[in-house]
Amino acid sequence: MTVALAVVWVLCFWFVVYTVKYLSRSSRQLLPLFQPRRQTVEVAVKNFHLRVKTNALNVLHDELCYSLSSDEYRLLKRVLLHLYDLGSLVGVMGMIGALLLLWSITANLLMSMARASFNSSHSSLVKRGLEIEVGEITPALAGNGPFSVRAIIPGVTVPLSHLPIIFVALCVCQIVHEVGHAIAAATLRVPILFSGFAVTVIFPSFFVAFPVIRLERLQAVDRLRVTAAGCFHNLAFWCLLYLATWTKISTLVSEFFFEDVSHMGKVVVGVHPDSPLRNHIPSGSIVTMLDDTLLNVSGIASNSDPWDEFLLSPSIPVATRGWCFEKSGLGNASSSPECQSADGRFCFALIDDTSNRYSLDPVAVLTGDLARCDSSADCTSLSSCVAPQHRQQLVRVALLSSGLASSEEVVLWKGPRREIWEQVEVSTLKPRIPLISNKVRRYTLDFIEYTSFLPHMDTY
Fold it and tell me: What letter does residue 2 receive in the DSSP assignment?
């Protein structure tokens, strides 16, 4: 997703909102929308702010208030009150800790800026000195400390494609937050006036509203319970996510839906839409080799990834094996010591004598059924062992595109190896169910990660 595409989607959303608002003025059926049992939905639009509130959930809250007031659920009510007492204490301590952390970060930032200004004024180096001093305050601004603030900015600090996942995670955290306020109010028999959500430009938020008079009549401890309940629910939600990660539940779920094929190679999760490889490497195929480098991890150290090592290594591997190519084809190919790649042909040399170079079609040599060889002695008398000349930016991608039992295919890539790493996303897990793709797992993991970052956000 590009920035331009994201802007187009936002503009389309607000175009639809204002279209509905314009049509509702003439029909007078949408703002407000009346439903049975006097349940209402009111929509307000002003500039780039959309606010929707409803009393449709008031019945559920009233039933919860009634249930918690009965003798049948008296024990549950006591447990909830004790939990919200703990939540109030944690909320107060968290607020004090957050203020101290904010003051500490501010003080460190001001000290870093003052130190940089003092050192630059006493430095005899102008250009280099300025670069070094500016670099010193970068960690504080970037947030490299253990208690530093790290901003989540789509397109800057995180991929722009994560924007929808961040919004969903933000909505889930806010719903959990508002449910906490509602349940705490139900234990004290405080009704809700309405609930709803709002969108400001692109930022969503949820809310519940209580009668001010009923809140003011509560004791200070009870008001603190209602106020701190939202953050306490977010903390409990974060603890559940951490417990699921710590107990390896996510791993068990992954093993149920996905099969580990690391002993064969890498599963293609997706290819960049603008990549020329998109039409040649389908999602779900298994890449088994890059040139002569096997991608299976059997017998390889767990911290070693042959995919990353091959594509990101600054050194270019030297071909040690070649292909038995017919001598008649070599005789028809142009041969010169200054062999250059042109017109779809690349320079090949004899394994036994690299001074003999030939301009050959790499597709005919590298993607066919030619026998592999270590020297011309391994070939027949009518063939010679040839290999691509070093540093020609040719990569053979061997893959199984139609399942584990399919025949192996070879795709040739001409260009820097790093571009393959940037354009092709791979994994070691293959979906057991065709309807579940590897992207679902990736999006789920990203969602869990962002929900663990956002639970502290308060909209009450």
Answer: -
